[in-house]
Amino acid sequence: FPILFVAAALAEGETMIRGAEELRAKESDRIAVMAKALRSMGAAIEERPDGAVIQGGKLRFASVDSGGDHRCAMALAVAGAAGGGCEVDDVDNVATSYPAFPSHGRDLGLRLEATK
Asked: Which terminus of the chain, N or C, has less C-beta within 10 A?
């Protein structure tokens, strides 16, 4: 679901995500983490208890926090590639679900580098 937030932030028009309250009880509160991070990148997002309303547009560079959530970290890396770039904090957890994400991302042209 975090990548859907990214797609909506880059799409034309408005995207409404609802009925997704279970996202608040995953490795992080994925709705809150993605809304905060994408707002930092310039997206217009109205957070709701069971989802969000997202206005599509352009993203800009920002330093963001993954909330310790591997799926949010990967989605935010993709958001950075599609927008003005980003620095994502707390990415060690990506190995939880996709250990090859850094190498595959670089193969696809993502500029991924460890800063710690």
From this structure: C
